[in-house]
Amino acid sequence: MRLIDEKEAINMKEKLQALRAEALTQVEQAETLNDLQQVRVSYLGKKGPITEVLRGMGQLSAEERPVLGELANKVRGEIAEELDRKKQALETAALNEQLKTETIDVTLPGRPVQVGGSHLLSDIVTEIEDLFIGMGFEVREGPEVETDYYNFEALNLPKGHPARDMQDSFYITEDLLLRTHTSPVQARTMGEYKGNKPVKMICPGKVYRRDTDDATHSHQFTQIEGLYVDKNVRMSDLKGVLNQFAKQFFGEEREIRLRPSFFPFTEPSVEMDISCKVCQGKGCSVCKQTGWIEILGGGMVHPSVLEMAGYDPNIYSGFAFGMGPERIAMLKYGVDDIRHFYTNDIRFLQQYHQV
Description:
By secondary structure, this protein is an alpha+beta fold. The protein is about 40% helix and about 20% strand.
């Protein structure tokens, strides 16, 4: 490779100085940010003249190479610095011009801001949770995609049990399904404690059943179940807890009654009614002339359920209950269609919150 002589090296230096002066002039003349970007690309880009000069440095002598390299870096730095200064000046000028043309009329009325509120159903669940927390219950949660074992078998519903037909299910696999009730949380909690300590809990959450949606049914709804397991728990304890719930939630004047019923995981089982708020128990169209409205089911935990969870049914006993917050909200606020809770109609929501 031929080395450049001293005269050619001087020409390269002079060319760099000329490029510097030329670039600075174009920077000063640039009127827009786009013009400035064109200058940056033209002089500092990979195909620019400064880069072209630097490609010839390999032909310089060992003494000239660092001298020209230092000069090239200085020229590039000065051009880049001037480009940044000009860019800032153009941006400031553009902002000032925008501020002059875009005035704000502070006398115009402001736009109202709509503030959302919690959903009626969420408020009902929270109110019920607070009520039972006040009675010493803890709140537990569990998975919505549940195993067949916890959803059915651990609750005294073995495979092939006819009571499974009461809860037509959404199966994902042969062993996985969308839970049909929140009772699996109770089974999981008792299994976690392994029969070594009492359980006093409620478990709110979504549940799913294959049902035709209408005014009183939905394929997805909310459920809150309660469980109390300890030594010497009796049916009278269940009645006392439910009576306290009814009076605090629906009003001190409400009365309750328990009717015999059937659930596979409780024995004996009961349905609970409250006296009708509309007619005060005298009979009307709301309570179908009975004076009573059914709101939940419960009973004493079946010994088989206790045993499968690791509790000795000869030592421990317990009660369980389950309620639907949608039904309770419908009774408390006179909502006539369960679908109102899920269609998100702002007109319905505005009746309970300023949204």
